[in-house]
Amino acid sequence: MDLEDTITAEEILASRRISRQKTLVSLSAGVLAGAAAAYFHHEDHQLSQPYFSLIHGFLTSGLFTTLLYLPLNSFSPRGLAVALQAIKLSFRQLQRGNLEEKIAKTTPAMLRFLEDAQSLARDPLLKRKLQVSLDITRNDYDLGLRHAVSLLRVYQKANPLIRLWHSLHDVGMSVSSTIANFNKRPQFVFGRGLEMLARGMPHTAEKHFSRACDIVDLLRIPMNCFYAYVLDFLTQQNPRMYEKRQQQWKKTVDLLLEDPDYLQQFRRLGTSRHEVLEIGSEGLLHDTFIFKRDNPSEHLTREYLLDQTLYTFFDDKEAVAQPLTCFIHKDKQYLVLRRIPGNVLLKSDLAQFMPFLYQVHTLLKKQQEKFPPGLLIARQYAPYLEQRYGQRVPSEQQKSRVLTALYRLAEQLDQQPKNVIHGDLHPDNVLSRTTSFTILDLEHLCLATRNLDLAALLEHDKFCLTESEQTEALHAYYQQDQGCISFEECYRDYQYGALFRALQVRGVLESHSYGSDLSEQKKLQEYYTQRAQRALAALQSLDRHSAAPLEDLLLI
Q1: What is the dihedral of CA 344, 521, 412, 354, to 10 degrees?
Q2: Cβ–Cβ under 8 Å, residues 46 and 26
Q3: What are the distances in angstroms from CA 315 to CA 2, 283, 292, 312, 355?
């Protein structure tokens, strides 16, 4: 989901029209009050003219402005009832007692008040400000940020005098903001900052965010992540804030390094080159912040550039994780990403995921020329296979046969079109939700046959797909491809990719240790050996002549 919640031009025009009407009424009331004061003024009054009339006019105009810019119409019967409800609620909050208990007891009433006020408000922008207060009261800070950001954009485009006027008449209008002043919990202080954003007051908002981040609390690190994320948006509006954003991310990393509970959560996942830490917080963050760290090298920098490039390609901002920053701090390089929550891809998700994967491959193919020069690396099949398996056969005669088989496999793969692919698309690198998916870890993005992506997914040991299940999944993918002449040809090309992937994973398992359970790793090696044999058998049945030299791969 994109950060900004779009506000239409019609809403802005309607809000300005209502604002002008309210301003005209309050000024007219002030003029009439001043005229009346001049008419009834006595010469022996202590305050002489014109000061007597001006004071009456300003006070009357100020009173009308306050009443008219309340979140509801206090002059209507229903509006007056809701206003009295707000006053009663404020008195309950000011009573002595345990703050947490008072909040728990008054939250339902607060929600009812905000919902009633929102339904009564005629101003579209005022409705959206009340929605931010509702989001905060519901502890939905992610959604509150999206709504606040959309309002901030409107105010930043407005005339400076209009911004000043809105800031003046907005002060004190939000009930939840008033309560936040009495509440020292970081969530409420942070919520106050979101409300300041919604009013077009980013500098005041920053003060609240900074104050919330300094409060020692269990949510301190997620709070600092969220503040850095807010600064990331503000940097897009004001590039001069870039350094401040970077300093906030570094401060967050310092907090991580000082916290032993978080520090021990940095770990390598699967075949990833980097240590990874995930930070989320129920009740504050729906989304998750991903920290990747490694020794300074080109790998994280390349991944950051790839993430940035791909994020601009997708209209659906859930399709890939959002890259936030990449920096070196205390002799380590860090990459920070933000992603929305989801579940690891399951076998039952394949029917929906395969058409989505085809759309991703199609988009990457169309956008291939837009990647920065030198960022995409073409997969070299023959050198990889020779390095991995060329020296493993002791007999010179068998070695020659094995190398011939390896070169034959590489030749078949080279004949397939090279497109931009993920490069390591196993189930753990895909998050599934009800109607969408997110593809993770783009560090292996490269130019190769798309069948390597398909094989990485469909040959994976977590799925253990039967031939019929595999065929069904491939049908779901190739049905989207109008360029597929026949499924049999596509299926044959897939089997070459499956054979390469099985040999690739088996070779990695044989040369690296993953975890302490060596027996489990041995089982995985046997599994991928069997998958290689199954792919070879399928090729022999589909294309006996071309697959004949590949039989010597069984020698390894």
Answers
A1: -10
A2: no
A3: 9, 28, 25, 8, 17
| Residues 335-345 as b or e (16 or more Cβ within 10 Å = b) | bbbbbbebeeb
Q: Judge if the upstream peptide bond of residue 323 is cis by omega within 30 degrees of 0.
A: no
Alpha helices in 121-216 (DSSP H): 124-137, 141-157, 160-170, 175-182, 186-198, 202-214
Helix crossing, 242-258 with 220-237: angle to 10°?
170
47 falls in which pLDDT band (50, 70, 90)? low
CA distance 543 to 540: 5
Q: What CATH number should be reported for the domain holding residue 277? A: 3.30.200.20
User: What whole-number distance in Å separates Cα of residue 145 and Cα of residue 193?
Assistant: 10
- Judge whether 478 and 487 are in contact, CB under 8 Å: yes
Q: What digits encode the pLDDT tens for the residues 330-344?
A: 899 999 998 878 899
Token pair listed for 179: 């309560």
CB 226 within 8 A of CB 281: no
Per DSSP, the three-state class of 556 is coil
**Residue 202: what pLDDT?**
83
Same domain, 229 and 210: no
Examine the domain organization and report whether 323 and 247 are in the same domain. yes
The boundaries of the domain holding residue 271 are 218-341
User: Up-side HSE of residue 248: CA atoms within 13 Å toward CB?
Assistant: 27
Which residues does 15 contact at the CB level (< 8 Å), separation at least 6? 123, 124, 125, 126
